[in-house]
Design brief:
CATH architecture: Alpha-Beta Barrel
CATH superfamily: Phosphatidylinositol (PI) phosphodiesterase
Radius of gyration: 18 Å
Number of domains: 1
CATH class: Alpha Beta
Largest sheet: 8 strands, parallel, barrel
Length: about 260
């Protein structure tokens, strides 16, 4: 299967990340896969934003868990250079209005109010210690995807394996991905290929990892385990080509405009 490319947060280097503008433009430019992040607001709405606070990406301040939808409507998103735009923090429902009429695959990443997970060594084994999750967020996302008719083309992703366990409890057949970053491997002194077993233990059929962790040993172990491999976040053509040649299934990028035409 050829490598597929994903517009990370809608194309975070090109437009305000996780904005309706970014998702519209990515789809108009031909993106076949979109990645977005979700948090839960104080009044129980699913907000599409990466950080647990408003500070970095908007004119607002404070934690998402303390905000209401009205609060999100009152702030404006910033472009990567800090410029204030006309875009607001969207809800998942607003994003689905845009995405549902298309054929785009949706990669929905569950965020949390704090650190998602840490991995610690226990003798010869490495075990995951899940962090705090938003109670009820998984059910809200699953229902929104079902109502929009896109559940069959959605991948639900998280660094926190407890989130994936809750998704499996709600919808056992829903494709899920365990995400792993560099510190998760470095802190317990694990091998890169150990992450494949972590994905299996989490019940995931997909492993998403920082691109610097992905090597021949990871791809080989994933193939033996029938686990798909994706990497984030690759923003240059040379690395895209190298990882595609390695056999990576999915490459997530802030620069969908740089995806080589012969690989798209």
């Amino acid at each position: 299967m050829p490598t597929r490319f994903v517009a990370h947060r809608g194309g975070a280097a090109l437009w305000p990340e996780n904005s309706l503008l970014a998702f519209r433009n990515a789809l108009a430019a031909g993106a076949g896969m979109l990645e977005l992040d979700v948090h839960l607001t104080r009044d129980g709405e699913v907000a599409v934003i990466h950080d647990p606070t408003l500070d970095r990406t908007s004119t607002g301040t404070g934690a998402l868990r303390d905000c209401t939808v009205a609060d999100l409507r009152a702030v404006r998103l910033r472009a990567r250079d800090g410029t204030v735009t006309d875009e607001h923090v969207p809800t998942l429902g607003e994003v689905l209005v845009i995405a549902a009429p298309t054929a785009a695959v949706l990669l929905v990443e569950f965020k949390g109010p704090g650190r998602a997970v840490r991995y610690e060594r226990d003798g010869e084994r490495v075990r995951a210690v899940p962090g705090e999750r938003y109670e009820g967020l998984e059910a809200k996302v699953v229902e929104a995807l079902r109502e929009a008719g896109v559940a069959g083309r959605a991948m639900l992703m998280a660094f926190n394996p407890a989130v994936l366990a809750e998704v499996r409890r709600l919808v056992p057949e829903q494709p899920t991905a365990l995400l792993v970053d560099r510190q998760h491997v470095a802190e317990p002194g694990a091998a890169n290929a150990d992450t494949v077993a972590w994905a299996q233990q989490a019940g995931a059929t997909f492993l998403g990892m920082h691109w610097t962790l992905c090597d021949e040993s990871v791809v080989a172990a994933a193939r033996r385990a029938a686990v798909m491999v994706g990497v984030f976040t690759v923003n240059d053509e040379l690395t895209m080509r190298r990882l595609a040649a390695l056999g990576v299934d999915v490459i997530i990028t802030d620069r969908p405009d740089l995806v080589p035409k012969d690989l798209a």
